[in-house]
Design brief:
243 residues, alpha/beta, 7-stranded mixed β-sheet, 44% helix
């Protein structure tokens, strides 16, 4: 068995999955690939198996929160040392995921998160142009995450992750909010794990819409705000119990 797992949450992604899986197989030939089939009504599971992936299928659509938790839990249960996550819509290049996995494997961090908005060598600061509603959502998310984490975090809703075994227990538990990526970062902070945000290039989505567009931006911001509010109340309660 390989020591690296890459999992892909997928719901009705039979059109996008073949290219994603073929790219993963070519770029990370020694990694195992798992598709979390979230109650798809199309050929997602069949396509995934035809392209060499293991498949975990839900009997009904349970949402992204369940898919993320199941992927990390699978990695822990099956003894993987490294686990990567990419989306099924084709926006996450395998060479960027490979960079994240190498950062974690080297011991530089326990978790590496691919960021569209972080800058660095070869990654211009303003390489992605955002709509007004998206800019609003991003600005609010950044302020909220800085307050919650005590540090800047530029791309809190990124779905490109690489994590080591120490992070799997925290990330594989059921999620209670509608913003699982944000909840993931809060859990990692509480666990005392080292998280780095790494600049990456991402493609345009092959299908579907961005979370931060129009009314979706407003709904996501409200969801994140409620998640952070519950987190703040929990932290105050926990400090009170310890004192």
């Amino acid at each position: 068995m390989a020591d690296t797992l890459v999992f892909i949450p997928a719901w009705n992604e039979e059109e996008n999955l073949p290219a994603v899986l073929d790219e993963l197989r070519a770029g990370l030939p020694n990694a195992d690939v798992l598709v979390i089939d979230d109650g798809s009504t199309d050929g997602t599971a069949t396509v995934a198996r035809e392209h060499g992936a293991e498949v975990l299928s839900f009997g009904e659509n349970r949402g992204l929160q369940a898919g993320i938790a199941a992927g990390y839990a699978w990695g822990e249960e099956h003894g993987y040392e490294l686990v990567g996550r990419v989306d099924a819509d084709g926006q996450h290049p395998v060479d960027e995921l490979t960079r994240l996995l190498e950062i974690v494997r080297s011991g530089e961090a326990d978790v590496a998160v691919g960021s569209r908005f972080a800058s660095g060598d070869g990654y211009d600061e303003f390489r992605y142009e955002a709509s007004p509603s998206r800019r609003f959502g991003i600005a609010v998310l950044r302020r909220a995450m800085r307050a919650a984490l005590g540090r800047p975090f530029l791309d809190a809703t990124s779905g490109m992750y690489a994590v080591d075994r120490k992070a799997l227990a925290a990330l594989g538990k059921p999620y209670t909010s509608g913003a699982p990526e944000v909840e993931s970062l809060l859990r990692l902070r509480e666990a005392g794990l080292r998280v780095v945000e790494v600049p990456v290039h991402m493609r345009e989505r092959a299908g579907g819409e961005s979370k931060l567009r129009g009314s979706k931006a407003v709904r996501l911001v409200l969801t994140v705000a409620s998640t952070l509010l519950v987190y703040g109340l929990w932290r105050r309660h926990a400090r009170g119990r310890r004192s």
